[in-house]
Amino acid sequence: MRVALVHYWLSVMGGGEKVLEALCRLYPQADIYTHVLRPENLPAELRRHAIRTTFINALPGSARHYQKYLPLMPLALEQLDLTAYDLVISSESGPAKGVITRPDALHLCYCHSPMRYLWDSWPTYQRNAGRLTRLFSRLLLPRLRRWDYLSAQRVDRIVANSRHVARRVRKYWRREAAVVHPPVDTRTFAPRESPGGEHYLCFGRLTCYKRVDLAVQACTRLQRPLIVIGDGEDRRRLEALAGPSVRFLGRQEDATVRELLSRSRALLFPGEEDFGIVPVEAMSAGVPVIAYGRGGARETVRDGVTGLLFAEQTPEALEEAIRRFESCEATFDPAALHAHAEHFSEERFARGMLAEVEKGFQDLRMP
Asked: Which GO terms describe its molecular function (predicted)?
């Protein structure tokens, strides 16, 4: 069986790229297709595969400013020749699912999220965009939304990474989706022996929708030490908000992240994520999570058992959650947190995906 994996772009490693790595381990013979490739930022496991790009990769400045070419990406996807493949798995968060496949081939879309900037998060992206970007996106938005909906109808089977995303798939694409949670490498993290730590931690891409500003403001006001790991377009604004108790370390090696995580009092997770691999990694290390109580966090964080959820996306609500956490910090058992994280292991992801692929082929064979 010839397999193609279609991923939106391969510029930096994040949660979506970790899912792609797991799919590569399931299908070591697979070819990878993507809009933009920066091989220097990829691990050897991905570089071992044949990686082909769309014409977007050859456009000026695409290595860093690929999202500005979003209006051309539907055309780029539909020009790919995938007729040689029996199984196509698209990894959808940016445009990836719009490829054309053979009638007898299975196209399974693993959906991290319907494109946020086309649907429910569109107003947030507009507020943070430049003047020309706002103008052009308003003009192009209706056409891109129509293409996003219509291309979802060509997919044979949709698998969402959470129940939260499955609801959004039903809302915007009018399709039902099975749920297979993303893989978390729980074997990498050993639970610490006892609760407690030296600092709070935020980790991930520094983009506006992740709302790291709430953690920065809350810890600045409370004068609690906060370490922020990661980089992105929102870093300069966040540094301007930060007081002396907040440190920005930029991107770090995995070993450094694990070491800083193990010494954390708790992970602060103030954004609304579709799933969120980082909180599960924290729990696997025995570290509680203080998370905004919407989106994927409601499926991974057990309030009062593996962390705390706060109800309003404001600095004040996060401050109150931190105080509440500190009053019961000693009750969070690292071994129990690690055991809970095992529900999201890579082994479970592999079993779930293989089962969904088999169901997809069974549906194709039905008269």
From this structure: glycosyltransferase activity
